[in-house]
Amino acid sequence: xxxxxxxxTPIYTLLHLASLYREQRDMSPLWNTPLWKHFYQTFTPxxxxxxxxxxxxxxxxxxxPVNEKRFQxxxxxxxxxxxxxxxxxxxxxxLDADLIRVLRLWLDWTRCFAR
Length: 115
Hints:
The structure is a single chain. The protein contains 6 helices and 2 strands. The chain is mainly alpha-helical. It has a two-stranded antiparallel ribbon with strand order 1-2. It is elongated, with a radius of gyration of 27 Å.
């Protein structure tokens, strides 16, 4: 079995990188060429991939999903009771007054027990 070579490649597409660099350029119009070369070399996020995988993402012009999970963890917000209820597979059913009384008694009992 012949193994493919490893390559270091940017994780973002050229359009994504151009957008990032354009933002930086607009914020700092006084930078000269050596500073820009340093910026490109230092702040272009890269990863090491096999040659086949690098070609796969390059042909499809998609970002390499290296940071997807990290971004998802950062963006996770605690759901409110209303959001949980809205996403539930069970229908919303109004509770009977007697059932509410039983639930409150049970909650009071568990609070007393926990103390």
